[in-house]
Amino acid sequence: MNKTCLECGEKIVGREDKKFCSDGCRNAYNNKINKDSTNFMRNINNKLRKNYRVLSELNVDGKSKTTRAKLLSKGFDFEFFTNILQTKTGNTYYFLYDQGYMLLDNDFYILVKKDL
Q1: What domain of life is recorded for the organism (predicted)?
Q2: Distance from first CA to last CA of the chain, Å, rounded?
Q3: Which of 46, 84, 95, 112, CA to CA, is 20 to 30 A from 7?
């Protein structure tokens, strides 16, 4: 039984369950499959990554305070987050993966990090 590479179509030599002729073909195939399909998706993912980097940079210790102005000056966009956590006490935290923030008084924010 002759198998061919899923990326380039070359004949595969080696293990029976092998799907690619080389690491280069495997990487190229997976990069094509996993790339963002539209500019819309790519732009949103870029904004999420940017917001995550800003929170990570400002919240080194796992819990800290900052101001709205400081977040905005670093390019943070409050419209983009991955999930919302509503606590039993009624507080609302907005998260970007494991980094979160909650509005306090006077445009201050508390930054937190979830233990995963």
Answers
A1: Bacteria
A2: 46
A3: 46
- Pairing of β 83-86 and β 63-67: unpaired
Largest CA distance in the chain: 71
Has residue 116 got a pLDDT over 80?
no
Which residues fall within 8 angstroms of residue 50, CB to CB, at 6 or more apart? 75, 76, 77
High-pLDDT (> 70) share of the chain, %: 99
Residue 94: phi, psi to the nearest 5? -105, 130
Name, in order, each residue with C-beta under 8 angstroms of 55's C-beta and a sequence gap of 6 or more.
Answer: 76, 96, 99, 100, 101, 111
Report the mean per-residue pLDDT for the chain.
93
Please compute the mean of the pLDDT values over residues 44-58 and round it to a whole number.
Answer: 96
